[in-house]
Amino acid sequence: MKNSILFLLVSILSTIVTAADTSGTSGKIQFSGVGYDFTYKPISKINNNDKNCSCEISDKEEWFTGTNAPFSEYLAVHIRGPIKLSKFAYYTSHHFSIDDNSSTNWNRSALFDNTKDFVVMDNITFLGHQGKDSNCLGKALTYVGEDAITPQKTNTAPSKYMQDLSNVEYIMYSNISCPKSSVNGGCGVYRSGIPAFYGFGGVTKMFLFEFSMPNDLEGSNHTSYYNAPNIWLSSDSQPRVTSESDYQGYCSCVFQGCGEIQVFSANATKMNSSIATLQGLNGTSSDNFYSMFSNMYGHGSFDRPINTTATGGILFDSEGNIVTFISSDITFDEELTASSINAILANIPELGATKQLKAGVKSAPTSTASRNSANLTPSKVNDWMYIFTIATTLLHYIMW
Ligand SMILES: *[C@@H]1O[C@H](CO)[C@@H](O)[C@H](O)[C@H]1NC(C)=O
Ligand SMILES: *[C@@H]1O[C@H](CO)[C@@H](O)[C@H](O)[C@H]1NC(C)=O
Ligand SMILES: *[C@@H]1O[C@H](CO)[C@@H](O)[C@H](O)[C@H]1NC(C)=O
Ligand SMILES: *[C@@H]1O[C@H](CO)[C@@H](O)[C@H](O)[C@H]1NC(C)=O
Ligand SMILES: *[C@@H]1O[C@H](CO)[C@@H](O)[C@H](O)[C@H]1NC(C)=O
Ligand SMILES: *[C@@H]1O[C@H](CO)[C@@H](O)[C@H](O)[C@H]1NC(C)=O
Ligand SMILES: *[C@@H]1O[C@H](CO)[C@@H](O)[C@H](O)[C@H]1NC(C)=O
Ligand SMILES: *[C@@H]1O[C@H](CO)[C@@H](O)[C@H](O)[C@H]1NC(C)=O
Ligand SMILES: *[C@@H]1O[C@H](CO)[C@@H](O)[C@H](O)[C@H]1NC(C)=O
Ligand SMILES: *[C@@H]1O[C@H](CO)[C@@H](O)[C@H](O)[C@H]1NC(C)=O
C-alpha cells in the first residue's frame, strides 16, 4: 500500500501543468480524476491535558476509496470573514454527470436563507471554535451567537447585519446528531463536551452560496488572515478535534489523508478556487502540509465580490469531477433539474485548463467494496481481503 501511496503522490505532483491563469466575475474552475484509494489510521484517543496534548491513532487501518474520495465523506462548511453569507444550500443527486442531461435531478437537503425577515435554517447547525480552550487543540466547538463569536447554548444564525470582521469563522453542519465519540462510531473520536453533528454527506453533492466579501475597513492588519475571506470544506471530523490546521501530534486528520478543499479563498482582489487534500498523507510536519497545499491549486481565479453579491457553488459529480463556479443564473430551488445545472455550467467560461488529478491505482480489496462507502470498517476490509485472497487462490487453481 505504501508504494501505491507514493506512486499516487508522485503522479499528483507530476500532473501539475502550467496554464495561463485567467480571471472573471463569472466562470468555472474544474478538477477531474478525483477519487483516491488509500488507508489511514483513525484517532483512537485524544490526550487533552493543558500542557501537552496529542492524539493516539488506531493500529487498525481504514480505507478511503472510490469516486471523489476523500470528499465523498461528510463535509463541514467553513465561512471565514469578512463575508456576508445571505444564502447557503446543500443538494444531493443519485447520479449526476456534468454535460449529461439524463442525470438525476438535484434535491435540496439543507437551506440557510438570511434574506427575508425570518431567517430560514433547515437542517443547518452553526458552530464555531469559541468553546473551552486548550493549549494545543485550540478552542473547542460550541454554538455561537449572531456575531459568530459569543458562545451560546443553542443553534443561532449569524446576523445579517453582522460586522464584516476578518478571521471570524463559523462552521455549518447538518442538524443530525453524532453518536457518542468512538473509533467505530459514525463520527469517530471527538472532544468531550462539544455539540457534535454530522456534516453534509454523499459522493454526489453540491453546495450553493449567495455571498459578498466586503473589504474589512476597520480591522487591524495585524490580525491573522486580515481581509482574507474564505469559504472552504473539510472532513466534518477535523473541527470536532482541533481548531488548528497544523499537525498537532496526529490530532489533525488532514495529515492522515482526510479531505479539505478551498471553494472561494480570497486575497484583496481575487478568489482562488483550489483543492487541498491528501496533505502529506504520512506527513508529520507543517512543511508537508503546505507543500501539498500549494501544489493543488486549480487554474484560474474569480474576482472577489467586494461591492456586489455573487452566487456560486461547488459540485462533486458521480464521475470524479469537481467544479467550482460563479454565475448569476443560480437559484436555490427545492429541486434543480440536471439540464438547468448543465445549462448554467455550459454558459460560463472555463477559467484556465481543467486540472487533472489522475490517481491511477485502485487496490484489490476496495474494488469489491461499495463505491458509496467512503469509510469501511477495518473488520469489513479484513473480511474482504480474506474473501479476495480465497477467490484469487481459487481462480489460480482453476486456471492453472
Ligand atoms: C508530550 O506527549 C507525548 C506523547 O504523549 C510525549 O511523547 C512527549 O514526550 C511529551 N512532551 C512533553 C514536552 O512532555
Ligand atoms: C429527490 O426527490 C425525488 C422526489 O421526491 C425522489 O424521487 C428522489 O429519490 C430524490 N433524490 C434523492 C437523491 O434523494
Ligand atoms: C432538521 O431539519 C429538518 C429540515 O428543516 C427538520 O425537518 C428536522 O425536524 C430537523 N431535525 C432536528 C433534529 O432538528
Ligand atoms: C440533513 O443533511 C444530512 C446531510 O448529511 C442528510 O443526510 C439529511 O437527509 C438531511 N435532512 C433533511 C431533512 O433533508
Ligand atoms: C498596517 O496599517 C498601518 C496603519 O494602520 C500601515 O501604516 C501599514 O502600512 C499597514 N501594513 C500593511 C502591511 O498593510
Ligand atoms: C492563488 O493561487 C496562486 C497560485 O496559483 C497563489 O500564488 C496566490 O497567492 C493565490 N491567491 C489567493 C487569493 O489565495
Ligand atoms: C491576489 O491573487 C491573485 C490571483 O492569484 C494575484 O494575481 C494577485 O497578485 C493577488 N493580489 C494580492 C494583493 O496579493
Ligand atoms: C513517509 O513517506 C516517506 C517518503 O515520502 C518515507 O520515507 C517514510 O518512511 C514514510 N513514513 C511513514 C511513517 O510511513
Ligand atoms: C466599493 O465601493 C466603495 C465605496 O462605495 C468604493 O470606494 C470602492 O472603490 C469600491 N470597490 C470596488 C472594488 O469597486
Ligand atoms: C442540457 O440542457 C440544457 C438546457 O436545455 C442545454 O442548454 C444544454 O445544451 C444541454 N446539454 C447537453 C449536453 O445536451
Question: What is the topological layout?
Answer:
Blueprint: H1 2-14, E1 23-24, E2 27-32, E3 38-40, E4 43-47, E5 54-57, E6 62-64, E7 75-80, E8 84-92, E9 106-113, E10 120-122, E11 125-129, E12 141-144, E13 151-152, E14 169-173, E15 205-212, E16 230-235, H2 237-241, E17 260-266, E18 270-274, H3 286-295, E19 297-303, E20 310-316, E21 322-326, E22 335-336, H4 338-346, E23 355-356, H5 364-367, H6 378-399
Parallel strand pairs: 1-19, 2-23
Antiparallel strand pairs: 2-21, 3-6, 4-5, 7-14, 7-16, 8-9, 8-15, 9-10, 9-22, 11-12, 11-14, 12-13, 15-20, 16-17, 17-18, 18-19, 20-21
The structure holds 2-acetamido-2-deoxy-beta-D-glucopyranose (NAG) (10 copies).
One 2-acetamido-2-deoxy-beta-D-glucopyranose binds next to helix 4.
What does this structure look like?
- By secondary structure, this protein is of the alpha+beta class.
- The protein has one domain (2-399).
- It has helices at 2-14, 237-241, 286-295, 338-346, 364-367, 378-399; strands at 23-24, 27-32, 38-40, 43-47, 54-57, 62-64, 75-80, 84-92, 106-113, 120-122, 125-129, 141-144, 151-152, 169-173, 205-212, 230-235, 260-266, 270-274, 297-303, 310-316, 322-326, 335-336, 355-356.
- The strands form four sheets. It has a ten-stranded mixed beta sheet with strand order 1-19-18-17-16-7-14-11-12-13. Strands 2, 8, 9, 10, 15, 20, 21, 22 and 23 form a nine-stranded mixed beta sheet that branches.
- Strand 17 (260-266) and strand 18 (270-274) form a beta hairpin.
- The longest helix has 22 residues, at 378-399.
- The two termini are 27 Å apart.
- The model is unreliable at 1-21, 278-295 and 359-400 (pLDDT under 50).
- The structure holds 2-acetamido-2-deoxy-beta-D-glucopyranose (10 copies).
- One 2-acetamido-2-deoxy-beta-D-glucopyranose (NAG) binds at residues 47, 52, 54.
- One 2-acetamido-2-deoxy-beta-D-glucopyranose binds next to loops.
- Residues 105-343 form the Cell wall protein YJL171C/Tos1 C-terminal domain.
- Residues 28-93 form the Cell wall protein YJL171C/Tos1 N-terminal domain.
- One of its GO terms (cellular component) is fungal-type cell wall.
- Residues 1-19 form the signal peptide.
- Belongs to the PGA52 family.
